[in-house]
Amino acid sequence: MGERERIREAAFELVLERGWREVTEESVAERAGLDPAVFERSYADVEECLLAVYNEAAAEMMARVADAVAAEESWLEQMRALGQAIFEFLLEDERRARFFVVEVVSGGDRVRLARERDLKEICAQIDRGRFELDDPDSVGPDTAQAVAGAVFLRVSRKVMAGDFQGQGAVEIVPELMHSLVLPYLGEEAAIAELHRPPPPPPPVPTRRG
Questions:
Q1: What's the number of domains the chain is made of?
Q2: Is 179 among the domain residues?
Q3: Which of 5, 69, 105, 135 is the most buried (most CB within 10 A)?
Q4: Which pLDDT value is given to residue 209?
Q5: H or E element, residue 43
Q6: What backbone phi and psi angles, to 5 degrees, belong to 182?
Q7: How far is it, in rounded angstroms, from Cα 8 to Cα 130?
């Protein structure tokens, strides 16, 4: 493991232990077993370091989402695939899920902008549901933002409660799909999603390191 990777891993661990605002350059260097000067050569500050951690994880998740969506033809199937890709990504590592869903909210401006960038792309995928309607303009693009925000809040509550594992996590998928589908495909399609069995959880999550 190179020095920059050791620094990122140390920062990741400390954020989960202490919270974003309690992590310092000195504490990261100490956890990584490196001289503080090595941190200064590698990153301008803690936020830049943690932004690198976020971007690395986000790039992987968004690539999975893109592949999952591209494999489906209908908007409904694309939304199911999108949700499954995100859930599988988060469930693979509960620590990464907490960092990605909970801790980044406390990050600085650069992290906030990176998070908004990725949420914007997800909202763009959701917003394509407007073209399932006879009058696409009858539903505004802000609907996708509201739906995505509600889904994020539901997932973050699960993660904070320590209940985002295995079947306890995927059991909320039908409820989330109901909320997502309702504005675009109507009540009948939304209820059908509510009664679909949740997807199977991925294999037992692994831990980093």
A1: 2
A2: yes
A3: 69
A4: 46
A5: none
A6: -50, -50
A7: 40
Which letter does DSSP use for residue 41 in this model?
Answer: H
Q: Please say whether the dihedral angle defined by the alpha carbons of residues 189, 191, 195 and 196, taken in this order, is positive or negative.
A: positive
pLDDT tens for 27-45 read: 999 999 999 999 999 999 9
The sign of the dihedral angle between the CA atoms of 160, 166, 167, 170 is: positive
Q: Which domain holds residue 29?
A: 1-43
Q: What's the predicted TM-score (pTM) here? A: 0.89
Q: What is the pLDDT of residues 44-99, one digit of tens each?
A: 999 999 999 999 999 999 999 999 999 999 999 999 999 999 999 999 998 999 99
Alpha carbon 197 to its chain centroid, in Å, reads: 22
Tokens linked to 122: 């997800």
CA distance 155 to 169: 8
Q: Are residues 21 and 85 in the same domain?
A: no
Q: Which residues contact 114 (CB under 8 A, 6 or more apart)?
A: 51, 54, 55, 58
Assigned domain for 68 exists: yes
Asked if 16 and 103 touch (Cβ cutoff 8 Å), the reply is: yes
Place of tokens 């406390």: 106
Grouping H, G, I as helix, E, B as strand and the rest as coil, residue 183 is helix
Q: Verify that 64 and 119 share a domain, yes or no.
A: yes
CA distance 54 to 159: 17
Question: What does the mean pLDDT of the chain come to?
Answer: 92
Total residues found in the chain within this entry:
209
